[in-house]
Amino acid sequence: MTKLSVLLNRYDQSALTEKILGEGIDPFSYMTIDSDENGFLISPTPLFVEESGAISTEVQLDKNLLPLRSHCGCLEFYRKKECLHTTLLHALALKELDEERFKKEWDLYRYEKRTDRQRALILKMAEDLKNNPFYFNKIRLIPEITETEQSYSLSLHIGYDKEYVIKSIGEFMDRMEHGLFYAYGKKLAFVHSYEALDEESKELYSFLLNIASSDSLKSILIRRSQLLKILEIYHQSGLYYSNGTQTDYYSFKEMDSVRLKLDDRLLSIDMPKEMRKWICGVNFAYFFTEGSIYIYRFKKRNEAIVFSYLFKIKEEGLYLDNNIDEFMSVLLPFLQSEITIDDSFYQKYDLPLVTIDSYFVYQNAKILLNYVVHVEEKYQETPYVSYVMEGYFQTIESYGFAKEKEDTYILSSLEMQYAFLTSDLSSVKRFGTVYFDESVKKITLKKNNRIGISASYQVGLLDFRFDLGTLSIEEAKRMLAAYRNKKKFVRLKKNVILKIDAKEAKKIDRFLEDYNIALNDWNLSVEKPFYYLAKSVFEDEIVYDERSLKMLGQLRQYQTNSYPIEEPFLSVLRPYQKEAFQWLMTLSTLGFGGILADDMGLGKTLEILSFIHQDTIPKPTIIVCPMSLIYNWENECKKWNVNLPVVLILGNASEREEKIASIDYESKSIYITSYDSLRRDIDFYHGMFRFVIADEAQYIKNQHAMKSEAVKKLRSQIHFALTGTPIENGLADLWSIFDFIMPGYLGEYHHFKSRYESLILQKDEETLRILKKRVQPFILRRRKEDVLSDLPPKTEEVYYCKMDEEQQTIYQAYASRLKDSLKSGGQDILALITRLRQICITPELIYDKKFSSAKLSLALELTQRALRANHRLLIFSQFATVFPILGAHLQENGIHYQILDGTTPAQRRMELVDDFNRNPAIQVFMISLKAGGTGLNLTGADMVIHLDPWWNISAEKQASDRAHRFGQTKHVHILKLVCKDTIEEKVLKLQQVKQDLADNVIKQKESFKISKQELLALLEGGNEIGENR
């Protein structure tokens, strides 16, 4: 038996522990003790109370005060067979009956509790030191570059407040690799880890992994390309630079432009004398001055090429000597805008002064350029003037201008217009004067600022408001439309160009999609159903009002709500059913719908009826269910809601229409109809129901089916769906059910498919996380094994059989036809699949003659064996036509059976169920999977045989749970019969592969559709099963 001190630690979750046990309070004010010759019986006075009401608790101790048994009505005990309540009673009794022994246990509890706290504190401290050693300060690595005549070397400084020199780079790398603690000095000691470093240092560390080794010393030699990488990493902050004798800290600064200079025959970089040290990379040039490193970002490919060549000869420059003609004809046109040419150069080579004035005009949303060339007439036709003109054209084309006609260029691109208008145009000004027309000066350039979103509760609605900053709503719409068309800029008005902030645009675009708001419907204020509150993906972006946050908390913590439960339900509801009641009441109070997705056999019917009973709104409820379950609902409604009118909408068309016309929409009552009847009658329903309950809601999983459309047309304040399998064929099923319970919550299906379904099928974990977060508040799913600890176990086994030669020959013939049909895209694929499955059971299902059947022989053998062991059986099959064939074999062997299939009237179904449960003489109940797989309580059986496997494993599970459910007292055996080397054997593998998606979304494994490629794989035994999603 678990020690009392251990139990106290385990359940130390209430101030009650200290209050009752730690203070000098009379234990008898909390309990009563009865004794007899066997020991002591302890119960609380008064009863313990939970949200659902008072609970019964008892603890029985033997004469030595050791526990014999205990019982409590709380959910914790129901799940674990121990709880806080029984533990406290045990402790109270010990305190009264053996105070010395209690004191030892109590002291041990206190000691262990204190020790556990200290241990937790130590572990938390170590975790904090490891992951965030200085809480708000990250460790910084600062490189030190030392330059010699022929090379560069790298050493490191480290710190966050005070810096220390790393004496061995190799040892530092070893500390990082193994997460070692090391003290560099009094003000720096930490556990080394990647997360301990700031962002620049993380990047440098990753770089060092490629160039440093464990035996590296204080410094390591680096190449120029590696130096450029370090400069690039630290260009936002700074580093140390040393010439070998002096070390200084250098910060980085931006440099707008760098000019080339042509003086006599020397082409060089035009820069101040103090900026003679420089290094050239692919995209940048770095110029060193005292204490600063200037970064020049190349704006043109021409610059990068010339600078790379000049860097090779560094300060010397490029002497043109006798190559001046080649320079002017080949290089000068490309460098005209980049070069400052000394007047002596013009005089020496008799070159004319050429100026080109530029005139810019804004017209028809385009910027037009006209230019005028000024040069002495005698030089107009000289090659040099042509060189200069060519350089000018290249310069203006680099801004995006294109030639429209002689002397006129045009700039159409918004992006290029924005870049042009934000440029200093220095390269154009080198050629002459730049003139802007008033139309250009009036152009306004804008950036969209942060868009704020707030939400507030407004009488059943959620009112979203948008703060667009300087943008109007129409401008914001144009911005978003441009963003959706992959644009970076948008023209808001004739003279206004907006640069789109992609991050903000993406945020609002995702919001409008997720909240089902069309762009044309977007305004500064948009109202949506209040259940949109639960769409919390953007909870960091949306500012909610206090009332909305309070109601959101109610939804997320529904277990803590305390809606009262009245009789007769209070005394019969189990703890998990009371939890469902609180969930249903919370959702309906907030105006939300939901999916009650408890396992089959957990009592969804009772849960929903207790909820309807408690609701006080004087309006009717309509329950839509399969025809086979109508009388079951009627019986349950009359059993539990004695004074509430219950009306079945059945009969011929005129009878149903008459009943619908007589519905009183202002009084509380229950109406029950079938999906098929509703499909025919939907146009006759005109009023507003309080609740629409869709039972076995997988019937509305097909969004295009007439049944689905009919159910969704029913008007009600709240919609609830009941189904143990909200996902059978794919996420489209879930969308369709949500489209019923809360229309629009998951958006239009085409949006849902692209936003969620397609990505999740591609194993996108983040999208799966977001979808789960959105749907989980509205799905209540509990499995039997989690809440019914007294439910007997079930065992599943697969029994294989081998077809005889004749059966195998027939099977292979149809398999070959199916392969050919799949490859040619034939129209008879489904029919051929059905034939294969029927042949696996017996060829008699497709041929009007007698055949031997390995599977039926196995079924008969297992049945006889089970009956000898006093079992009673359910036999399920997709093909009801096999039951008379199997029934003949059962009858020959004196086995009594009955059959339920799609032809069985609904009222007769209930009679058959009652007969089987009450009459042990009926040994076998054969049921078609579609007709009897749901809604039946058949706990009179303790063995289930599935004659044939089906793609949808959830249908098999539902059928098995007809026997393995609340009320069953025996171990349930489930047997699956499979023909070896056939499509059936492959189906079992496919079922296993296809269970992941639904399990991830709603914590329950389901099955999915089968594709053409998977069918081929089934027949060929390939590996493609499930991999083409």
Automatic annotation (TrEMBL):
TM helices/strands, residue ranges: none
Molecular functions per Gene Ontology: ATP binding; hydrolase activity
UniProt domain Helicase C-terminal: residue ranges: 861-1016
Extent of the signal sequence: none
The entry's keywords: Hydrolase
Domain Helicase ATP-binding: 585-744
Pfam hit, one: SNF2_assoc
Protein's UniProt name: SNF2 helicase associated domain-containing protein
